[in-house]
Amino acid sequence: MEIMIIALFAVSILLIGVSYFQRDSVKDIEQEVEHLSVSSMQEIYKLKKKVRVLEEEILQNGLQLSDYDSIDPQTLQRIVLKHNQGLSTEAIARSEYLSEDEIRDILKKNERVLT
Questions:
Q1: Which of 6, 49, 65, 86 has the fewest CB atoms within 10 Å, i.e. the most exposed one?
Q2: pLDDT score for 55
Q3: How many CB atoms lie within 10 A of CB 106?
Q4: Domain of life here (predicted)?
Q5: pLDDT, average across residues 26-34
Q6: pLDDT for 34-89, tens place per residue?
């Protein structure tokens, strides 16, 4: 009985010693998550900064909205974007459900944004 207790005590000391030398995988995962969190926060900051710069440029150049109160600003921006991507006025008119003349007028009034 005494031998059994001594053996169990020795095994427990051995296991405690082994546990100190093993790498803590939870700590590694925590460090990895922390690193990912910091890098994602940096990326978000950079993207917000870029969006702020783009918003300022749009405000400075400004889309001419006064003549097109019935058309929402997002549609006007999509039209300009599609034109910059090389779509024809006919294709833009079909996709936005507007006439080609309206598309041409919008693009003409927003020439500063296009260049």
A1: 86
A2: 76
A3: 24
A4: Bacteria
A5: 88
A6: 999 999 999 999 998 888 888 777 766 655 444 555 677 788 888 888 888 888 88
> What six digits make up the tokens of 7?
């053996």
Q: Does residue 97 lie within any of the structural domains?
A: yes
| Residue 14 within any structural domain of the chain | no
Rounded CA-CA distance 111/115 in Å is: 6
Question: How does residue 10 score in pLDDT terms, banded at 50, 70 and 90?
Answer: very high
Six-digit token string for 58: 């749009």
Look up residue 54 and give its amino acid: L
Is 74 within a domain? yes
Q: How far apart are CA 8 and CA 108, in angstroms?
A: 88
pTM given for the model? 0.39
- The range of the structural domain enclosing residue 101 comes to 62-115
**Contacts of residue 56, Cβ cutoff 8 Å, sequence gap at least 6:** none
As given in the structure block, the two tokens for residue 88 are 């024809």
Q: Look at the alpha carbons of 92, 94, 100, 106 in this order and tell me if their dihedral is positive or negative.
A: negative
How far apart are the two ends of the chain, measured CA to CA in Å?
92
| Domain count across the chain | 2
